[in-house]
UniProtKB/TrEMBL annotation:
Pfam families: ADH_zinc_N (PF00107). Gene3D superfamilies: Medium-chain alcohol dehydrogenases, catalytic domain, NAD(P)-binding Rossmann-like Domain. Its cofactor is Zn(2+). This is Zinc-binding alcohol dehydrogenase. It comes from Halogeometricum salsisoli. Residues 160-274 form the Alcohol dehydrogenase-like C-terminal domain. Belongs to the zinc-containing alcohol dehydrogenase family. The keyword Cell cycle does not apply. InterPro entries: ADH-like_C, GroES-like_sf, NAD(P)-bd_dom_sf.
Amino acid sequence: MTDARRVRFTEPRTVDVEHGPVPRPDDGEVLVETTVSAVSPGTELLVYRDDVPTDVPLDATIDGFDEPLSYPVSYGYAAVGVVVAVGDAVDAAWAGRRVFAFRPHASHFCAAPDSLVALPDDVSDEDAAMLATAETATGFVMDGRPRVGERVAVFGQGVVGLLTTALLARFPLSDLVTVDRHASRRTRSRSLGAHEAFTPEAVQDSVTDRFPGDGRADLAFELSGNPEALSDAISLTGDDGRLVVGSWYGSKPVSLDLGGRFHRSRMRVRSSQVSEIDADHAGRWDKKRRLDYVLDSLPDLEPSSLVTHRFPVEDAADAYRVLDRDPADAVQVLFTY
């Protein structure tokens, strides 16, 4: 085997690729050799830019991320690879399996088998690498509960916004509009089933003319990661409407004008995050059922069609610079190994 490589955020806007020995699995572990991993642009750019709050864990539900951000740190949670060695206490049938893991970007890692997702043959490595993102989008749609004939707006057409749009397009909605400042992302949005896509500056007037009645949405999603978009989403959501906030703004301040129409609107604003199943679904759903559903849907959803850049993991620093500086063209980045 070659030496192992892992991506490390060493300080704000500084990324290194460290080399070291390939780890050995303990008795109850397997060793996975990574083939591809997906960058989560929203969360990982917060880490890259040092925009993560200092008093909250990166992700309390994933091993190793249950402490606040402190450089240097390895981060990421979408790795696909092949089991190349098994510990003495592990069933030998794991050897050779393709698997998905919620693990940071690294060429090799050890993990307990029960933390891995065995991949079916009809799911490609690149689609599998986007399993976590597709699960996030599925969670947003489940929390939004779109209904027949509703008018729906999605703010933000990054990769998770685009996948959310693709899922919503499968519902019998009367209108599905999206909002993004980048023309290329608006074009992608329309190709995935949005009836129309607008710039943030044009959305209020355009949707008012488009939606009958009060000119507002029954259901809106704020997925842009931009705090300013939240006020726009509130303004566009109608009385008694629902607004799902899936963005993590990190340490960026959010300023809202709630003194006007909002006070009497009876609007329901809810946060949505993939780590939990909401209480209304928890009676019939758990995280395994949701993940199994998303895994089954990957060949049809084909999230890898949104990949715009592939970088050898050795060039990880270049990848984050592209994501940071060129959001118009960089939608989804994959690391190859």
